Amino acid sequence: MKNKNKKVHVFKSEVKELLHLMIHSLYSNKEIFLRELISNSSDAIEKLRFEKLYNPEKYTKKVYVPKIQISIKKTENQIVISDNGIGMTEKEVINNLGTIAKSGTKSFLNQMKNIENKEKNEFIGQFGVGFYSAFIVSEKVSVYTKHASEKTESGILWISEGKGEYSIEEFATQEHGTKIVLSLKTSEQEFLESWKIKQIIKKYSDHISIPIEIDNYDKKTQTISWEKINEAKSLWTQNKNKITKKDYQEFYKYITHDSEKPLTWSHNTVEGNQEYTSLLYIPKKATWDMWHRENKHGLKLYVKHIFIMDEATQFLPNYLRFVKGIIDSQDLPLNISREILQDSTITNVLRKTLTKRILKILNTLSLNKSKKYQKFWNIFGLVIKEGLAEDSENQKNIADLLRFSSIQTESIEQTLSLKKYVNNMVKGQNKIYFLTSDSYQSALNSPHLEIFKEKKIDVLLLSDRIDEWMMNYLTDFNNIKFQSVSKADDSLKELISNENKPDDKNIFDDFIKKTKKILTNKVKDVRITYRLKSTPSIVLTDTNDMSTQMAKIFSSAGQPVPQIKYILEINPTHPLVKKIQKIENESEFSNWINILFEQSVLAEKGTLENPHIFINRINTLLLK
Ligand code: ADP
Ligand code: MG
């Protein structure tokens, strides 16, 4: 019979793209479709429980026994997954199953175009393949659903072959909830085996708190009986001794869609003033949207074991947004909204303790001899650095977690801790030296490092974009001050012994005076320096002035930058300087001094305001 209610819709283009991608890149891990559908059913049931608490008048008062049921219809080539959760209205069906609401989807899809097939599998898994994964194994998917608050005798049937369109029609039903019928592709018949389905559920969904049942048909008695196949107890509410490593790992995969195991985790139940259980995971990989500001990152919130919301961002500071897990509070009210959560004192206390706990987990990991912490730092170091500004209360703990490249690590990989740096300080050194630059290579080759290399004094080499900004917040470590080597610094004088100072100091007095006059408006000061070896001169910024690197960051962000006035330091032992010093012709001398200055600025900034003037000067000299 033809249904005259039937309407055909086309998928939004990003759905089509995602479907195509998924079907062609997830072939090696097809079984996850079951995890995704069960997780949606479980969410739907949790939503209904929650709704019933909030708006009881909208729902029946009948005793509610939530369950998820799976039946296998071998002769029809079908798997049926049904739940008695909240269900969907027609509008919701169209919104939820015909579009992708997730922000950042476009940029995600664009990113996907540039990566290898092998990696796609993992990447798309992290994005959360969700409902559409049904199409990996099905040639047709039918969704029968009815919202629990719906008073009519009909529900909505959504049907699609996953190609470009779907249809929607009404169907008669008394029951609320959702039933998904997967008509399997002929190549996917293995999923019609009951043992196989049981195995997959055990693997991915054992800890789901709602019973999952599978039907067994008894040929003798010709009856169907339902067999519960999962543990059906929330993992975190169970006794720690009973939970295996594997349980924790699978639970992590379930809540994150990550295909890899987590790096580490911590499960705590706290009693007393604030009663709560937390289960926090540190992933191995960053999620695809870690740098998308608009995307939410947070914990799953439960109150008294009832699911309240996903991505509750209020329990973690932003710089710990890579942490995944759940928090189950005994003290928060059940009817809490995001807004109230934001201002609640309970939330604030929890956030503080969870932050401390995570920093402790990381600290423990960092003291461990394994390579785990280094792996963590390589991926999440940049995010941790944000913490120095965001969380002044824990600055010391965050500083302990930092890792750096330095002259002595001789590697772009950031491996050096501040503690180790301090332990390796040379006699008389009372500052932690650092240099910020655009790249590790340019930092390593900077003339600012010459004396440090010679004296074997280590310098931290900072080349992440956030570093310059970070160093504004990180002023000392265990009471030892940080010092930029590209800024004027008197402490250095004491460290550099007098060994290479020539006696003819007066000769230079005159030279410096003349130089200052030539560069009057361009520099803040001109000095003799003994920190250079193979470079004739260098520019520094004054102690309290904006650094070059900071100015670059400002200007690349389109912000106005004050003109930096440099201090020019000249190396009296350099042959070029010795030569210039002897020049008597005033205009020639002046030309040389300007070249010294301009090449120092060029080395420092990588650019010149008037490069053609500099080039003209050089060309004039070349012709001589
Ligand atoms: P996600 O679960 O990450 O939101 P999915 O693609 O898995 O993404 O599901 C999309 C949406 O479809 C869900 O957010 C939910 O609103 C709706 N949905 C899917 N399955 C069900 C179900 N069994 N019952 C009710 N709603 C569902
Ligand atoms: Mg889902």
TrEMBL record:
Cell compartment(s), UniProt: Cytoplasm
Domain of life: Bacteria
Family annotation (Gene3D superfamilies): 3.30.230.80, 3.40.50.11260, Heat shock protein 90, C-terminal domain, Histidine kinase-like ATPase, C-terminal domain
Ranges for region A: 1-338
GO cellular component entries: cytoplasm
Record has ATP-binding as a keyword: yes
Pfam families assigned: HATPase_c_3, HSP90
GO MF term list: ATP binding; ATP hydrolysis activity; ATP-dependent protein folding chaperone; unfolded protein binding
InterPro entries on file: HATPase_C_sf, Heat_shock_protein_90_CS, HSP90_C, Hsp90_fam, Hsp90_N, Ribosomal_Su5_D2-typ_SF
UniProt keyword annotations, A-Z: ATP-binding, Chaperone, Cytoplasm, Nucleotide-binding, Stress response
Ranges for region C: 553-624
Main location: cytoplasm
Keyword Transport: no
Residues involved in ATP binding: 36, 40, 83, 88, 96, 102-104, 126-131, 178, 338
Subunit comment: Homodimer.
Function description: Molecular chaperone. Has ATPase activity.
Family classification: Belongs to the heat shock protein 90 family.
Protein name in the entry: Chaperone protein HtpG
Organism: Buchnera aphidicola (Cinara cf. splendens/pseudotsugae 3390)
